[in-house]
Amino acid sequence: MIINWSYTLGFGLDKDAGFFLCTFDEVPDSEFMVMASFHTEGVEIDTTFEFLNARISDLDLNIDSAVFVDLVAPGYLRREGDMPGRLTMPQIRTLNQPSDLFKITAVAGATISSSA
């Protein structure tokens, strides 16, 4: 099993706006990402269920999953004159709900192949 993770966090201090977070709108990667992969090759399985016997040989199994978290600036926070890609503390305090700041995406997939 392989687990990979990465994060990109940007923040700063502006003399006028104070503390801010960077949303990296122009970067295609997520600010936080966790990926897990599980792979097996050439596994043999012998099984019996009641009167039914089965044998699977040369089983290859690939399972991949990922969770992505993006910091986003909701449209109602975008005002003319704001610095693109920055969320200041006053803006963050005006969020309708904290979840407005995050976009969470999860994906998963699997492939199974074998010789019977």
Question: If you had to describe this structure to a student in words, what would you say it looks like?
Answer:
- The protein is mainly beta.
- It has one domain (2-115).
- It contains one helix and seven strands.
- Strands 1-4-5-7 form a four-stranded antiparallel sheet, with no helix packed on it. The chain has a three-stranded antiparallel sheet with strand order 2-3-6.
- The longest helix is centred in the last third of the chain and has 5 residues, at 89-93.
- It is elongated.
- The mean pLDDT is 81.
Question: Can you give keywords for this protein?
Answer:
116 residues; mainly beta; four-stranded antiparallel beta sheet; three-stranded antiparallel beta sheet; 1 helix; 7 strands; 60% strand
Question: Gist?
Answer:
The protein has 116 residues and is mainly beta. Helices cover 4% and strands 60% of the residues.
Domain module tally: 1
**Rg over CA atoms:** 23 Å
Q: What distance lies between the first and last C-alpha atoms, to the nearest angstrom?
A: 25 Å
Taking strands numbered 1, 2, ... along the chain, how are they ordered across the largest sheet?
A: 1-4-5-7
What is the total tally of β strands? 7
The level of helicity is under 10%
Q: What would the average pLDDT be, to the nearest integer?
A: 81
**Largest sheet entry:** 4 strands, antiparallel
**Tertiary shape:** elongated
Number of helices: 1
Q: What is the ordering of alpha helices and beta strands?
A: EEEEEEHE
Protein structure class: mainly beta
Low-confidence region ranges: none
Strand content: over 45%
